[in-house]
Amino acid sequence: MTLLEALLVGLAGVAAGTINVVVGSGTLITFPALLAVGYSPVVANVSNSLGLVPGSVAGAIGYRRELSGQRARVSRLLPASVLGAITGAILLLALPPAAFKAIVPVFIIAAIVVIALQPRVSRWVMRHRPHGAEHTRWLVVVVFATGIYGGYFGAAQGILLMAIMGVAIPDDLQRLNGLKNVLAGAVNLVAGLIFVAIADIAWGPVALIAAGSTIGGVLGARYGRRLSSPALRAVIVAVGLFAVVRLIV
User: Fold this and answer.
1) How far apart are CA 19 and CA 165, in angstroms?
2) 71-83 per-position pLDDT tens digit
3) How confident is the model over 119-177, as pLDDT tens digits?
4) Model's pTM, two decimal places?
5) Which of 15, 127, 216, 229 has its CA 20 to 30 A from that of 222?
6) How many domains would you assign to the chain?
């Protein structure tokens, strides 16, 4: 990488770390950045997953007040996320690279749609939020499925988790956001450890994204709630469309 390319990847890491803590979908920033500087889709994906782990840890620490009293929830849902991440990572490495190039544009388009519709999803969640007991049984299954998606690619994993938990768990959304950061971070960590053991990793970009996402995670936990949601969604959608075009071309 040139100095300019390294700067691009590092800044993408800062943006992704901030976005992941506040909303989710930071992968739609760093993954296209790695494609833009010339990495293959699979190498870009595994390097991205590993690089975003420190940012997730920083975000979870930043949300530690919101995580207070949620140990039982973490104990119930974390194993489902971990098992899903293992499954998704194995699928990524077992399937041929051509399958990834064919599948991921569909994932990105789906993620873009979810992000674009996020205000409507949030309103729907608020109308259908439960009162009383948590819907734990089906929630564990859906969190497992989300973990598979996160282990395989993961863009907008956080948004999906927030929509799912917002419907199933009667609690403040900021507290659920803290829980989301733990679950999504665990998926990235587990998938990243598997990739370290078996996959080809571009360690330079990993280090740049890790440093950037750590800064972004701290910024997201401290200042992220002040960001303009429409502007943030517009940036993510634009970057996602770039990634789709880059993969197809």
Assistant:
1) 19
2) 999 999 999 999 9
3) 777 677 667 666 666 667 788 999 999 999 999 988 778 878 887 887 788 788 788 88
4) 0.83
5) 127
6) 1
